[in-house]
């Protein structure tokens, strides 16, 4: 059984729709752990009344994404999970999402596998895996390279986001949980998948397992859309800032090959500063 871990903070309507989409699935062989990190909008009451089968753990509002996920992972592992999946609450899954996840588990039982992200509004593919080139500080987006007829099955990648990320127990036993000390909110998922890759585990994106996201709902998108000095500061320094320089520096020092670190750091900092101003 897959144990699905969903960290939440408010936005109970998103959480409800996410859980309902899982309920509509063709395969119900999963269990759910929701980690509610101090929601104040009635999320806990909604979960208790509408989804009594869901296990709910509680934080005090200071866990953020990474520590919330780790709390859920620990619970799942303590209850015998062989596979865990991290899933954000601001998305919905396709009806055959779990079915097509199990399909590839049977063929790649020790691989870390991500999902194909679709735009929930346009219903078009949005994110289909990334291959990073540290030497040139570039990211190849697999979705842009694959013709339509090849957008099926598994494809190798070098990093994966935490939305629909399937992790075998064997991976956690070897490399541990997410690095909540260095990366309390963003980047922890990319760091984790790089760590798994360095330790000999394969990374794939599963084009048969589709989930639907709302990219415009992210805090970083709103920071960029409503430009101000405050949002610029938040972008670079806030714990939820998508361009957080501390997180980027820590990620680089931990994951970038040593010869490429100086260029990667300088180029990356410039991209985060000037990218915000021009986009």
The stretches of 5 or more residues where confidence is low (pLDDT under 50) are none
Mean pLDDT: 93
Provide the helix percentage: 25-40%
Indicate the CATH topology of the largest domain. Spore Coat Polysaccharide Biosynthesis Protein SpsA, Chain A
Tally of DSSP β-strands: 12
What is the highest CATH level, the class of the largest domain? Alpha Beta
Shape: globular
Q: Distance between termini?
A: 43 Å
Number of helices: 11
**C-alpha Rg, in Å?**
18 Å
Strand content: 15-25%
Q: Can you name the CATH architecture of the largest domain?
A: Alpha-Beta Complex
How many domains? The number is: 2
Q: Which class of secondary structure composition applies to the elements?
A: alpha/beta
Element-level helix/strand string: EHEHEHEEHEEEEHEEHHEHHHH
Spatial order of the strands forming the largest sheet: 3-2-1-4-11
CATH superfamily of the largest domain: Spore Coat Polysaccharide Biosynthesis Protein SpsA, Chain A
Taking the sheet with the most strands, its summary is: 5 strands, mixed
Pfam family, one: Glycos_transf_2
Organism: Pontibacter burrus
GO molecular function: transferase activity
Keywords: Transferase
